[in-house]
Amino acid sequence: MLANDARILIRSAVATAIAGVILIVVGALVDGSKGALGAAYAVLLVAVFFTLSVVAVSLAGRWNPAAMTATALGTYVVKILAVAIIVVSLRNTTVFNTKLFGFTAIICILVWSAGQIATLARRIPYVEPDTALEVDDVPGVPLGGGEFAARQEGAALEASPGGAAQEAREGDDAQEARKTGRHG
Q1: Where are the chain's structural domains?
Q2: Does the first or last residue of the chain, that is N or C, have fewer Cβ atoms within 10 Å of its Cβ?
Q3: CA-based angle 52:53:58, to the nearest 5?
């Protein structure tokens, strides 16, 4: 599993577990053990389905990065069909509260998805900033900002005959002699 995928899995699972515990307590308060059991089944369903998706997409990414999208789409379709089959088969159950099951499942899906989005939204640098080269140290890369202009100006002064840099190196007498045409 890739490091970023593991990070997504851990953060999403922790967020869902926290929300799940809260929802199980709410289910117990609303409908006793049937409410708690319905919420617990929903948390378990969401955690298993989404974990399988992350693992499948991660494995596909290691095998062939181009297969990641197809794998994500395939696991999504399988999850939707499996949830539909589970919901239809449990619609008349009296073992747990089906309304709390559905409510908890929706909340956990949203929390898991928010965990994935939050993890992916964080910028992860490809290089450590302390070890990165300065742009001015890289041959062939233009200098940035005012330093470029200052170096260009200095080069132009050095290159021009009779320019300011040359005048600064010569004494006042030599400058005066050049201006008046006298050589001494």
Answers
A1: 3-125, 135-180
A2: C
A3: 100
